Amino acid sequence: LRELEQSSAAERDLLAALNEACERRLAVGADDAAREASREALPVARRLAAQGGPRARRDLLVTLLRGAQLAAQPRALLEEAVQTGRDLVAKEPGPRSARSLSVALVRLAAAAPQQGLRLLQEALGLRRELHAKDPTSRQARRDLFVVLSTLGARTGDAALLEEAFALARANLRAEQQPA
Fold first, then answer.
1. Which of 130, 133, 115, 95 lies closest to 145, judged by CA?
2. Quick one: which of 135, 71, 69, 123 has its CA closest to 98?
């Protein structure tokens, strides 16, 4: 058991280093090097998620989303991210898990247009709940704005677009307030 714990700790350290390398490489425009770090990070994140708890699943979700961002064909990674997010919400319900799932849903909606409306509606439900629980959160307002404007634009629903604009105005007012 101790050997497994040490191995897991070493893999967690490797995953953290690879994810950091990926971020830094992206920041300087070294996309090929970032892709390489992401490809190396994915199997490590999957192994850790299979062995571990909620943190390991969250790490896998982040790694999948980053990998999808870099992939020429992101759909499979995004589908895995959505499934990982659903597992995370089922096993550890809470705002952080719900937000992670909603991010994966919105990104998959962009990559899988035929499923897009259903995915965006699911994300909208999650983001409405998050906003209702913390209406003063700028992040919750911003996240809700993104899905409202995306869904409103896709469907031509003026009410969704107006709600998105109201949230954008609220965020702007909040940003202009002294801290």
1. 130
2. 123
Phi, psi of 157 (to 5 degrees): -80, 105
CB atoms within 10 A of CB 52: 16
Q: Which has the closest alpha carbon to 75: 118, 103, 43, 112?
A: 112
Q: Are 147 and 123 in contact (CB under 8 A)?
A: yes
The confidence score (pLDDT) of residue 7 equals 58
User: Are 171 and 145 in contact, with CB atoms under 8 Å apart?
Assistant: yes
Element (H, E) at 155: helix 138-155
Q: Are 145 and 168 in contact (CB under 8 A)?
A: yes
**32 contact partners, CB below 8 Å, separation of at least 6:** none
pLDDT < 50 positions in the chain: 1, 3-4
C-alpha to C-alpha distance for 27 and 42, rounded to whole angstroms:
20
